[in-house]
Amino acid sequence: MLTLGCARNEVDSEELAGRLSGGGWELVDLDGGADASPDVIVVNTCGFVESAKKDSVDTLLAAADTGAKVVAVGCMAERYGTELADSLPEASAVLGFDHYPDLAERLGEVVAGHAVASHVPVDRRTLLPISPVERQAASAEVAVPGHAWGPRIERKRLDDAPVASLKIASGCDRRCSFCAIPSFRGSFVSRLPEEILAEGAWLAAQGVREVVLVSENSTSYGKDLGREHAGERALEAVLTGLAAIPGIDRVRVSYLQPAETRPNLVRAIATTPGVADYFDMSFQHSSETVLRRMRRFGDTESFLKLVGQIREHSPAAGIRSNVIVGFPGETEADVAELVRFLTEARLDAVGVFGYSDEDGTEAENLPDKLDADTVAARVARISALAEELTTQRAEERIGSEVVVLVERPDSEDEDCAGRAAHQAPEVDGECVFVSGDSLDVTDLAVGDLVRARVVDSEGVDLVVEPLEVLPRVAPDSP
Question: Is the pTM of this model over 0.90?
Answer without folding.
Answer: yes
